[in-house]
Amino acid sequence: MDGGKPKKAAMNTGFGVLLCIFSIYVIVSSLHMKYFKQFIDGAGFFPLIIGCVLLGLGGVLTFIGINAGGLAELKQVFTGSFILAFIKNENTIRVVVLVAMMAVYVFVLLGNIPFVWATTIYLFITFLYLRAFQKKWIIPGWVLAIFTSVVTSFIVFYAFKLGLGLTLP
Amino acid sequence: MSEVAKQLGYFVSAIGSAWGGANMLIIAGAVLLGLIVGAIPGLTGTMALALLINITYGMSRSAAVAFMLGTYVGAVSGGLFSAVMLNIPGTPNAAATALDGYPLALQGKGAKARFGGITASCLGTLISCVIMMLATPVISNVALKFGKWELFLLAVFGITICGNLTQDSTPLKGWIGGFLGFFCAMVGVDGIYNGARFIWIPELTSGVTLIPALIGLFGIAEVLSVLQDRTPIKITDTSGTMIPDKQEMRSILKPVLRSSLIGCGIGAIPGAGEDIAAWLSYSVGKARSKAKELFGKGSFEGISCSETANNACIPGAMIPMLTLAIPGSTQAAMFLAAMNLHGIQPGPMLTLKDPTFMYVVGLTLVIASLSMFVIALFLTKPMTKILQINRKILMPIIVVLTVVGAYASRSTLFDVKLMLVFGVIGFLLRKVKIPMAPITLGLILGGTADTSFRQALSLGNGSIIPLLSRTVGDILIAVVVMTLISGALKTIKATKEEIRRKNEEVSET
User: I need a labelling partner for B250 at 20 to 30 A (CA). Which of A64, B21, B264, B270 fits?
Assistant: First the structure.
């Protein structure tokens, strides 16, 4: 498990256990739903079956994972050195940062400030983080990033407004 | 009037709808768009269709069909450009094409390889369209006899077979994906008594909206996967003669009919999709070829096998979608969602309500395929520039388009948030090798499976016994059981193989 990347058996075991826990939640919730005439045509009947099937499938996945040495691998996952390597992993950092930027864009910026501004800010910050633009002739990369962000935001906004009659938030 | 004459009448009236208005222009534009999207590694046809569904909002029904199908054909065909020129399949269905396309490019025959692939793609779609237009009315007549019990079994069959056939994963994980999709479809009020289910926040009362969820699964999740990957782009061989010689042309045409049948057949299996069709056709072609030693080293026959089959899969995927409302591939699922937006409900009743629609779809695919042939040939040179587009610039812009796509369906910001949540979940599920196709199928079929199952049980007074005396239902149960057994055996085999490999690694160290 070098470089903070868990192995297949550990992932199978971990995911299998999480699936079992989730399935139990689905089963319990389904049993607490309203049943009007009879049990079999109640709202919770089909989700109950889904929960039971997922529990079975999760159990099999956990069993397969453990058989392939998943428990030993999982123990390594919960060691300090692994967690440190995982946090420092370049790919992990990139994905976390990108998701965080998307979350800020969707949950914070959109709806609070106009679409064009929100999109320009999101694109500019993302381009900068990804180092998407290099210096061209005498124009610095960040200037190109701002230009592309603004132009893209306006094009998307007006294309949808004029083309489809859709006013973005 | 005989049934044949009736169908011929529908066919003739469909010609006007398919060719009429600005449809030809829309198809050409959509094919061009699809080819570009399909060629760029990281952008898949499913993602393109998911993003573009909302563009069809303002279009008429026939224009929307033309646009979606044109994009679909273009995106499936476009993958061959990057497979040949970069050795990176633009879409997963072109992975088998890269095995022979890239070696041919290294031999200076890249242009010929692209011509062969484009020709095979066009022929594959055309042959499969004929099969589709002949088979669909027959299957529709059978489907009309299906009751609630059979519809439920079909939905279960859909996700089990889809789980079985997923690439790079075991059937077990495919089934998990399918049932997770079923679960997502349960969120909201139920379809019979309006009982609340898993409504964690008030916005979920109307359930998980299909289009934002699909945009998240195929848009955001793919953007994250692509930006995590740092594959360098290096273009190989963009020059050379395009027209193959007589012998090469014979190699291209030889497997077309067989691969078309394979592609159409695989396409008709729920959720199986173009990549499975391409790989199966490639391996059958290799086994039956007289020049099998060339496969993997630069065989025109190999390119033809995979490209014919992946395109033939498109009309094939339309057969279960139109007759049973079960999409044959993830792209067909997007098409289904788009049709729902336009008030068309595919399924057994479609042939009664709108008997010409199936022929409109078939004829539109024929036009799209012919357009693809012409446009793809002209696109060969400019494609070298398109393939060099910086993905670090493209992907954030795709994120903005996913936001707009999710917002457009109901003009609510909640759908955008839902899309992002599904995107992140989709990305994490990909990491544990849960395939996306069964999740999509589960999401689409979950509602039908739920209401059909409960209504069927109610008709049987709560007992399953009366339902077991229905012949079609019994056949479907047998097929589902066989699918589950074969999937279980496949999973056991894969697990044993993994344990054996692991033991070998341990003994080596």
Answer: B264
